[in-house]
Amino acid sequence: MQTVNQTSEGGMYCTSVKAGERWRDTAATSGSIRAEGALLSTEFSVFGPGEIREHPANSVGEEVVAILEGEFDIDAAGEHYRLVAGEAILIPPREPRRFSCATAKGVLYRAAVLLDANPARSGAASRQPD
Questions:
Q1: 19 CB neighbour count, 10 Å cutoff
Q2: Disulfide check for 98: which of 43, 75, 88, 117 has CB 3.0–4.6 Å away?
Q3: 46 within some domain
């Protein structure tokens, strides 16, 4: 099993996440590529068959999750969804969430508001108004 490793590049003001060729790699069966700014976290996650990842209540802010490849069972805020590639879900803040891959391989894109937002932690420099 090949694991996808984190890769991001920081410019003066922006951080790019080079995930495309890694999550499309057929040998990559599990792992994540993540970048965090002052207020937002983004992540590409590759799942193997039946792989489950959970996040408890109060650990994640409001989040959008898009299915890029495969099919997932998603439990969030006490509700259950089966989503396929091309679909997305908006999950309210501070709710537990669980992602389970229902196919041989699945890829999620996640973008979440950080609950403990700290501008000093930004992966990219803050741009100041002129």
A1: 24
A2: 75
A3: yes
Judge whether residue 92 has pLDDT over 90: yes
The domain that holds 23 is classified in CATH as 2.60.120.10
Stated pTM of the model: 0.75
60-87 pLDDT, tens digit each:
899 999 999 999 999 999 999 999 999 9
